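4.2 Preliminary Data

To establish feasibility before requesting continued support, the project team ran the inverse folding procedure on a target of 299 residues. The structure was first converted into the token representation described in Section 3, and no sequence information of any kind was made available to the design step. The complete token record follows.
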């Protein structure tokens, strides 16, 4: 019995145009491997989320999304908005591809297509991975409050085709424009941490910005979020910490802390920026974070 056609939605602007240049090759590779796909392009922010939800509600067994972490973010919110067991397939075509790294999905698009074809044709059982939630919105890889959210917003505004280096450039620009260290109250389990902080990151996967292993201990299916927070840091101190962050050795530093959690509340004395999977939110003062273990079916 022939395999039914699988919807494949791609984001043409992912990877600063990388996605649209590679989709013909991805389509041909899946076809060669015996996976028929119905390919469509997203047309605007929010389109993937809406379309994935429609496909899940229509009963599709699987949906493939080709794009970056923002595309995966939309897809996960579309899937979790409805009571569906539709599985998600990922072809990483973004700039950072942090979610793909966390799930050992090959970074080369055609290799990822080959893995998907092998799993779909062999009817390999789907994997379940955890999903986080912040103020009612889901995130697949991670959420950040403070300086890393500022860096995410700067990176989104840079159009240079320099790959992961866009995030390093964004860090430098963020330092030049200044580092806010608002007073925050972070409450989890029976603990409360209070003080001035540069950032609070809630990691489901290990990576952020493609090149920064901010939570090297994180595992995307362990039923935990990894809260990594940094005390108030000067621009000079952050600059000195960047090399250790790139090597995943920043947890040794006295100002950087880690706590495994399942839920958390953050209150900031003034509105601070936040991001979910690199998608930026308006500045806010209150954040409710929790984890949904095994909520996403992944091909």
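Position-by-position output of the design step:
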């Amino acid at each position: 019995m022939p395999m039914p056609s699988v919807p494949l939605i791609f984001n043409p602007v992912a990877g600063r145009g990388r996605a649209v240049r590679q989709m013909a090759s991805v389509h041909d590779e899946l076809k060669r491997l015996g996976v028929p796909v119905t390919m469509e392009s997203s047309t605007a922010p929010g389109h993937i989320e809406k379309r994935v939800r429609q496909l899940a509600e229509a009963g599709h067994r699987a949906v493939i999304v080709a794009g970056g972490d923002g595309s995966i973010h939309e897809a996960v919110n579309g899937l979790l908005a409805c009571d569906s067991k539709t599985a998600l397939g990922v072809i990483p075509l973004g700039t950072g591809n942090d979610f793909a790294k966390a799930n050992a999905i090959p970074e080369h698009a055609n290799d990822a297509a080959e893995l998907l074809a092998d799993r779909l044709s062999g009817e390999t059982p789907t994997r379940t991975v955890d999903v986080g939630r912040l103020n009612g919105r889901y995130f697949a890889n991670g959420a950040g409050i403070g300086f890393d959210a500022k860096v995410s917003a700067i990176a989104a505004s840079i159009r240079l085709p320099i790959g992961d280096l866009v995030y390093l450039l964004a860090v430098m620009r963020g330092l030049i424009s200044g580092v806010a260290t608002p007073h925050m109250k972070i409450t989890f389990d029976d603990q409360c941490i209070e003080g001035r902080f540069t950032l609070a990151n809630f990691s489901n996967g290990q990576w952020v910005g493609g090149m920064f292993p901010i939570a090297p201990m994180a595992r995307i299916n362990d039923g935990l979020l990894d809260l990594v927070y940094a005390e108030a840091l000067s621009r000079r101190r952050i600059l000195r910490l960047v090399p250790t962050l790139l090597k995943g050795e920043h947890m040794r530093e006295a100002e950087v802390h880690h706590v495994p959690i399942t839920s958390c509340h953050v209150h900031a004395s003034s509105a601070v920026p936040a991001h979910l999977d690199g998608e930026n939110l308006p500045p806010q003062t209150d954040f409710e974070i929790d984890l949904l273990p095994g909520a996403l079916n992944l091909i």
